[in-house]
Amino acid sequence: MLEPITWTNSTRKLSELIPWPINPAQIGKDEAKRLEESLAEFGQIQTIAVSPTNEIYDGHQRQTVWGASRKFGMDYEVDVRVSSRELTEQERKKLVIYLRKGTVGAFDWDILANNFEIPDLLEWGFRPFELGLTDKGNDPNEEWQGMPEFGNEDLQGIIIKVHFADEVDRKEFAKKLGIHITDKTNSMWYPERPENLKNQLGTGLVYTDES
User: What is the pTM of this model?
Assistant: First the structure.
């Protein structure tokens, strides 16, 4: 049976840390920029987790981004937490997923909506679709990054999200607007679709998803 793991505080230069070859976490250009700005503005908040032989358990992106930074570099000294023993490969895999997915909480969207500004949330890392600013399950702009630009007219229009407390509210809303809304309806044009979209999407007011 493996002995329990304990952790001690220490410091290391970024150049002393050894990346894990199969680390599954990645970071994008925008996120990397924020990560560097975070260190400059707030200092190091989270420690980097390492083995007794300096192999990184958690902190690959910080080593990569801060090490490549002109302001910090690989000689920059960081706070680390050192495990009392080497983690097994399975323990290491489990820890990596736990730290990024399995033990991470969720945002309270009502608190965000009532206490935070949307431009700030977008600047700090939220994507438009996460805030309901697009009507798709992903950010439609991401698919086209690096592709040639075309002068197409923006046909998206103005999008708002409407939430109903119950079925009575939904029916009352539909009655006031003079439209038909079912429990399958997920988007619509009001008062009607623009003429240049009717050939693409068909006529009629309400689009329903029957899937």
Answer: 0.59
